[in-house]
């Protein structure tokens, strides 16, 4: 059973804190394993990647077969049904349209002393996109990573996706084709992240790695950060549903299970102002678990990390939501827009009972790679900005240098940085001659 909490009950604060701090991933063991894998890939390159892929994905590769060939991709994509293709194309179009609106503008202006200042956005040259493939395969994650990169103008896009036992989802390959990916490697886990970061003979290194994955992938991204950029650590999925009693309990049960089925460490929480409705949703979850094919994953996730919290008011629900800072927040209440004004820490908000979170996972348009583990307090979901860098621009005229240069010289002296001051002074002396 998930935990049932009530804000009016004694001991609520302690139980709520325990829920917030529940350890759901990244044990020290994982980090030790990952550190060994990265060191191995750095020293033995393709040989290590091949050996680890055989061990973890039960797939024997050679340096030549690490990447899918064009023929393999064309052949697999040829098997995609027209309905699947149409759905993926619609998703790609909607995700592209949404992300195009995120493109920031360059800026340039002349200030009062005549200096021209501004900034310019440029894309990273090469991005590596991790597509999870262990417990499920994620064509949608290909679109969510590759399309913003392409919109940003990234020149080279490489995907890594594990294919356990060699099983490939042709939609992953089609999604890569639709979004303009250049290379697809059938490797996963920490070895894939290490290959993208440090390069091997078969995999050229990239500048930035994005994409979600399990605890091994997350630990590897943490470790390679600095050598390459990373987007975030997107861990096991989470959903928080805030609902009043005027909802369909079965719909909400399915929404909770939609994230529970990703991973045994996923977290699904319902907050409601009606205790009886909370019970009804929990019962509906149990009923659905009896027939759900992925109950083996969703069941443990719901029972170990799930929660139903009864609150006195929706304002109190919003306060708790901000403390949880969930990856996904569904607002199934009479006025979701008004409530959303108060829910400020969440990766993505889904407004109203006709907006199941699953719409956002696939087709809504916004990105589904989102901050987890309470990091929505300080970070945002994947976007075009993750593939761009902002370079500042400054141009002084002689008059501008005369106006502000002496202050630079003063500040350089205060830091005892002689050459700094002299580099300004030399120019001022010349101008004053
Ligand atoms: N936040 C998001 O946007 C988002 C989107 C999709 C999926 N997800 C999450 O991504 C995760 C996907 O996980 P997954 O496992 O299905 O796929 P995955 O591709 O992340 O991991 C599979 C790889 O893990 C490695 N691995 C497995 N066991 C290992 C071990 N004992 N030692 C070393 N390496 C090992 C293997 O190399 C394997 O190829 C889930 O947690 C899901 O919730 C998140
Ligand atoms: N809900 C996941 C992010 O937590 C994304 C996803 C992909 N496919 C289905 N769902
Ligand atoms: Zn999902």
From TrEMBL:
Binds 1 zinc ion per subunit. Zn(2+) binds at residues 259, 262, 361, 420. NAD(+) binds at residues 130, 191, 214. Its EC number is 1.1.1.23. It is an enzyme of class 1 (oxidoreductase). Its cofactor is Zn(2+). InterPro entries: Ald_DH/histidinol_DH, Histidinol_DH_CS, Histidinol_DH_monofunct, Hstdl_DH. GO terms for molecular function: histidinol dehydrogenase activity. Keywords: Amino-acid biosynthesis, Histidine biosynthesis, Metal-binding, NAD, Oxidoreductase, Zinc. It catalyses: L-histidinol + 2 NAD(+) + H2O = L-histidine + 2 NADH + 3 H(+). Pfam families: Histidinol_dh (PF00815). The active site is at residues 327-328. Pathway: Amino-acid biosynthesis; L-histidine biosynthesis; L-histidine from 5-phospho-alpha-D-ribose 1-diphosphate: step 9/9. PROSITE patterns: HISOL_DEHYDROGENASE (PS00611). Substrate binds at residues 237, 259, 262, 328, 361, 415, 420. Belongs to the histidinol dehydrogenase family. PANTHER family: HISTIDINE BIOSYNTHESIS TRIFUNCTIONAL PROTEIN, HISTIDINOL DEHYDROGENASE HDH. This is Histidinol dehydrogenase. It comes from Ruegeria spongiae. The lineage of its organism: Bacteria, Pseudomonadati, Pseudomonadota, Alphaproteobacteria, Rhodobacterales. The gene is hisD.
């Amino acid at each position: 059973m998930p935990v049932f909490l009530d804000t009016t009950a004694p001991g609520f604060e302690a139980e709520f804190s325990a829920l917030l701090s529940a350890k759901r991933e990244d044990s020290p063991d994982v980090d030790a394993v990952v550190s060994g894998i990265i060191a191995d890939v750095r020293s033995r390159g393709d040989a290590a990647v091949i050996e680890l892929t055989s061990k973890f994905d039960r797939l024997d590769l050679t340096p030549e077969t690490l990447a899918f060939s064009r023929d393999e991709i064309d052949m697999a994509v040829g098997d995609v049904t027209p309905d699947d293709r149409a759905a993926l194309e619609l998703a790609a179009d909607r995700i592209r349209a949404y992300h195009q609106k995120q493109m920031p503008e360059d800026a340039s202006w002349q200030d009062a002393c005549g200096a021209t200042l501004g900034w310019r956005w440029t894309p990273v040259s090469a991005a590596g996109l991790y597509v999870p493939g262990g417990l499920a395969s994620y064509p949608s994650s290909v679109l969510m990573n590759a399309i913003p990169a392409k919109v940003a103008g990234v020149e080279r896009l490489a995907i890594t996706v594990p294919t356990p036992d060699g099983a490939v989802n042709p939609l992953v390959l089609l999604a890569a084709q639709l979004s303009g990916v250049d290379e697809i490697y059938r490797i996963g886990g920490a070895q894939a992240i290490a290959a993208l970061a440090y390069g091997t003979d078969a995999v050229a290194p990239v500048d930035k790695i994005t994409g979600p994955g399990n605890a091994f992938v997350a630990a590897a991204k943490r470790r390679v950060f600095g050598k390459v950029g990373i987007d975030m650590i997107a861990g096991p999925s989470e959903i928080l549903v805030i609902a009043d009693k005027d909802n369909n309990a079965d719909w909400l049960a399915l929404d909770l299970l939609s994230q529970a089925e990703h991973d045994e460490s996923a977290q699904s929480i319902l907050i409601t102002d009606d205790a009886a409705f909370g019970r009804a949703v929990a019962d509906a979850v149990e009923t659905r678990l009896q027939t759900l094919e992925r109950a083996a994953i969703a069941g443990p996730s719901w029972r170990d990390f799930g929660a139903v919290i009864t609150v006195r008011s929706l304002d109190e629900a919003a306060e708790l939501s901000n403390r949880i800072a969930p990856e996904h927040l569904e607002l199934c209440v009479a006025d979701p827009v008004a409530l959303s004004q108060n829910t400020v820490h969440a990766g993505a908000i889904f407004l109203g009972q006709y907006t199941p979170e699953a719409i956002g996972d696939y087709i809504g348009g916004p990105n589904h790679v989102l901050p987890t583990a309470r990091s929505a307090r300080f970070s945002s979901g994947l976007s075009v900005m993750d593939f761009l860098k902002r370079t500042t621009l400054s141009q002084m005229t002689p008059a501008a240098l005369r106006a502000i240069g002496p202050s630079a010289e003063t500040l350089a002296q205060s830091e005892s940085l002689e050459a700094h001051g002299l580099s300004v002074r030399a120019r001022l002396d010349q101008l004053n001659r």
